[in-house]
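Aim 2 progress update. The chain analyzed this quarter is reproduced below.
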Amino acid sequence: MKNNFLSSTLRAAKSAVLAGTVLMGVMSCDRDDTPPEVTHKIVYKAEVSGGTITSGKYMSYEEVKDGKPVILSDVPAGGDKWSKEVTTTMRQGIKNPALLVMKATGTNDSSTLKIQIYVDGQLKSEKIATGQVLNADTQIEFVY
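Predicted structure tokens:
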């Protein structure tokens, strides 16, 4: 009887030590709960048919505060085509806008200004303005 008691006590003690070791191992694991970073390629495009680009602004992502872009960069005047590729990297799950605002002067009433925003090679937004005074803007929001 004494032998059974000692044997079961030893078994319980071994189980307790094993459980404690496993628990300490699990508790001491380093867990990084920070979401991974994700990179997106944003391409802005503008094309004037029968006219000239006079001004514009786009979200450049040159400065980021609290996970959000804060700088709008200027589009140079002149020419009938413009494009800009911007690569951005932020934490997974963050929502971010992409913005393009363009102005152009058309030579006649059938002149057009077409602006587009692509994210990772996919067209996400397109706007077309027609006339002599051409204004177009588009904005999207995407998730990293």
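The mean pLDDT is 82. The radius of gyration is 30 Å. These observations will guide the mutagenesis experiments scheduled for the next reporting period.
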